[in-house]
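step 3/5: co-fold with zinc ion
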Amino acid sequence: MRRKFLIVTLIVALVMTLSPFSYGTSIKKQKKELKEVQSQKDDISGELDAMKKKIDKLQGELDKLNDSVSKKAKQIRVAEKELDKTKIQIEDRRDGLNKRLRAMYKSGSIGYLDVVLGSNSIEELVTNVDLVQKIFNNDQTILTDLKAQKTEIEEQESKLRVEKTKLDEKQAEKVAKQEELSAEEAKLQARYDELEEQETKLIEAIEEAMANNNVVYKGGPWAFPLGNASYTQTEHFMAQRSYEKHPGIDLACPTGTPIYAAYGGEVVISGTYYGYGYAVMINHGNGLFSLYGHCSSLDVSVGQKVKKGQLIAKVGSTGFSTGPHLHYEMRQGSTPIDMKPYIGIN
Ligand SMILES: [Zn+2]
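step 4/5: write C-alpha cells
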C-alpha cells in the first residue's frame, strides 16, 4: 500500500534527522499504539473502498432506472400523440356528419323530404329511407369505433402514467439510499482523517521521546566492523561522486561476511533504509551514530542494546549497490563524520 510506504518513509525520515536517540518503554508503547492506529486506518480504508463500490453499483442501477423512466415518458408522449390524432379524427367525423345533415336539410337534395317526395312507390320510399339510415349508421359506427379507440388510448396512457410514477418512486428511493451511503462514506472519511491525525501525533510523540537520549557515550577503543575478515576498500570517506560526496567507506567482501557493532549502544534502525538497503544504525550516545549499509541479513532489532563486537548483520548488496560490500558510516547528529579516529581508516 502506498500509504503504508509513505508512513514508513516518514518514520525513517524522522529517525534519520533525529538526534540523539532513545528508546524507552514509552516509545515501545507509542509504537504499538501507532501500529494499532495504522491497522485501524487500513480497516477504514477497506471499508471506504467497499462503500465506494456500493455507491458505484447504486449509481449503475440508478442510471438504468433513469433510462426506464425516460422510455416510459417517451411511450406516454407517443400515446398522447395518438390520442390527439384520434380526437381530431372524431372531430372530423362529427363535422362530416353535421355537414351532411345540414346539407341534406338545407339543400333538401338528399334529405328525408326528398327521399319521401322523390320516391315513386312505397317500396322505393322504404329502400331510400333505409339507404339514408345506412349512411347515418355507418357514420355512427365509425364515430363509436373512434370513441372506443380514444378510450383505449386514454386507458393505456393512464396505465403508462401509473408505471412511470412507480419508477419515479423507485428512483427517489435509490437517490435517498445513495445519499445515505454518501453520508456514511463521509463519516468513514472523517474517522479516517481523525486516525491520520492521531497517527501524526503519535509519530511526533515518538520523535520527542526519541529526542530524550539516555544512551551515554563513554569513549575508549572501538572495534573494526568486519572483525578479522579480509576486505578491499573500494571507496573512501567524502570521495566525490556525481551528485554528492560519499559519506562513508565501502569495504568489499563476500556476501554473508559477519558485521560487528563497532561500539556499544542501542539499535535505532534495523531494516530497509533508503538506498542503504538493509541497514543497521546504532546510537552510541552523545549524538554519535554508526551505520552499516547494504546488508544481506540483519541480526538485531530496533531498541536492542548491543555490545562492542556483537554480531549485528551480514554483508550483502541490497539497496543502491553494485556488489557485496559493507558501507560503514558514522554521524554526529545527522552529519557524516570521519571514522578514522574511531576505527583507524577513512
Ligand atoms: Zn558506500
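step 5/5: annotate
Confidence is low (pLDDT under 50) at residues 8-24.
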